[in-house]
Task: structure prediction
Amino acid sequence: MQPNLLKSLRYRFMKNLGAPLLTVLEQRRATGKRNRGPHPHFGPPLRCNARLRQLLTRHYFLSRYAKGAHPVAWVTSGAPVELLRVLDFYTIYPENHGALCGAKRMGTELCTAAEAHGYSQELCAYARIDLGHHFTGKTPAGKLPRPDLLFASNNICQTVVYWYRALAHYWNIPLVLFDTPFNYEALSDMQIEYMSAQLQEMIPVLERVSGRRFDVVRLQQIIGSAKECSALWGQVLDTMKARPAPMTIFDAFVHLAPIVSLRGLEGCRTHYRTLLDELRERVNRGIGALTVERKRLMWDNIAVWFKVRELAGMFAERGLNFVTATYTNAWAETGTMIDPQRPFESLARAYSQVILNNNLKHRLDLMKRLIREFEVDGLVMHSARSCKPYSIGQYDLKRILADQLQIPSVIIEADIADSRSFSEKQVIAQLELFFEAFEDRTE
Amino acid sequence: MTPTDLPERKAYLLHQKAEHQRNVLGVFPAVYPREILWSLNILPVEIWDPPVPIGRSAAHVPPNICDVARRGLELILQGHCGDLDGFLFPHTCDSIQNVASIVNDYLGTGKPSFFFHLPRESESRAARAFYRLQLESLSSALRKHFHRSLDTGMLVESLQWGQRIDAAIRTLYELRGQDRLDVSNSRFYSVLRAGEYLHPSDHLPCLAQLIETTGSAKPPKTPVVLSGVLPSPPAFLSLLDELDLRVAADDLLNCSRRLQVPDGPAGNPYEALTDRYFRLPVCPTRNSTLAQRVNRLLSLVGSTRAAGVIFYVVPFCDPELFDLPPLVAELKKQGVRTLVVEAGLNRQLSGQVAVRVEAFAEMIGSGAA
Ligand code: SF4
Ligand code: SF4
Result:
């Protein structure tokens, strides 16, 4: 794909003038909203929340003009996007878009649209939302650019492969898959060789779609930057080790967006540097995310996007703060494995060792470590109907953690973005029991 | 041993252990290099749809897991795997993946687990190289655990068994497609599926005898193509028989998608096995494109003159469920009639399933409907 001159000019115009103007408008809107009094249970909101909104608004705004100016790829959250960055792809993350739809309460509508075309209600809600968007064009982001390429890795699930195959069929565009063997046991040389060879094999396809030449030196720079973003994100999460924690995991769910969708880009790096500064300042001044942090909890699995605010409030009013999560940790845990000097091999290592590509023993050890390091008192596990790889195995994890660490825990049955799989009554009943057990144990 | 006296599975595997000093490995769905196991005197016994009541698995897996993965786990939890010497988990889908990890990491069965990744890219050199290395690595892990030594002669012989079985199955599908095999759906699939636990030296005569059953049913039955995971429970096949529907070809994960393999070049055993994997018919679990799947279904319908396609899907099976809408839409465009039935593996077929299949049979003009 060669860039179209007019579309490139339009994109540049929007980038240099349209997007800054939008940012100013967004800032004004945020300032108008800011004058709410102090919340009874939450500490002062993060200043960086407004900054994040601007960053994401800009990203989705520019995406409307990207087609023709940049090659466009839709990418799964665990795919080695660094390869695409070398070739100047504009990237859209359907899972991130699915979370956005969930948070904006559009998830169920789009899922239903996919179901009207024959997709089963049992399939992952992110996939149904995306397919629903394909059939209806509806999105809270205004408009998403039609991709030239689909880029997936099954390091999070096999579902993304089935889902992206459907998109590839409907749009008749190539799907490039980075196949990462699941780590039932320790990662082997044979696996690393396989993945590293795949990354090199896919370059001619990426070059053909993008119409650009691949440059390994540029790849080294980009993965260096991605590594830094990942490290910064890890430091952001680490600030929650402080007592009181300067933010909650619900804040982290929201601030996760740049590391998922803008990894390796300057905007991502700047955002996390600023956020880190703000969090460290809060730690120094003893400002907590909650007015009173009585106990500290861990969250397992993806967020219930359409109930984040309500759930956050429910826990906050009891002085229970979520200070860590297996989910948010996923984008920090393997960043240290990236080595710009061995780009393909280290990308293979880093991307294949993320939480969902690892066995349940690994997850158990990770949870134990997080519980210890973040001084966690209790555990909430979200059994997400959408996500089999995250949810199958949680019952055993809960039992083993209770046996070994005597830690109170609860499993809530819900979903990531389809509100029909959420029974308010049932979840409240499950949580009330947890709160009771928790109070009994700690008071 | 003949198709009429297929042995009971448990008695057979006990006999294999006692008589032939074979180790027995419980193998989860779907594709695995059976020849490697045979060559080491290990009998693979596949676990697809064990007839166990569902109970204990509820404490380990959420309700929205497919019946195949659930029943496999249930079989282990209920202590029915005492005679197995270990498990082999091919990486078929997310559900098998996590069940495998539960078994290996949490259950403490005291039995070894072996794993096998199925590369998702058919065109890639890296995938071929990886598959081949995995064959060697699996062989080495099994040898180490079961104290066997590498016997190239046995490997070549196992390969030959595999090739003869493949050839017999190809013939059977061909005869079936041309309506030259006068056996019921139930009989056809019970013989085919006996390969899930019979040693090839016992399965081959059964297949050969079935091939002899040439002739066509009078009056002729209506040909259909069956797509999905597995033809189970047996009551489903009996229903098709009652309705005078003949499964003329299938696109089932546990049947043609891994058994009806086109003939390939001979050569070094590991090369030949690698080649076999990459020649398997298209399947969503191995990332075949939807266009390939549509083409295969159309070609099955065309070559057997099938009156329609029945998608017989296990609930919660993501690989199948994701493909259904575009497949149904494309077949419809080509004027092929389709029926989608979701059914679990309970012995009893639900009344609703029966009614829907009957209505479909009537629509496509089956005599008995
Ligand atoms: S929610 Fe789970 S199943 Fe869905 S795309 Fe994410 S990892 Fe895959
Ligand atoms: S029925 Fe489907 S989901 Fe279940 S084990 Fe088989 S392929 Fe996996």
About this structure: Chain A has one domain: 5-442.
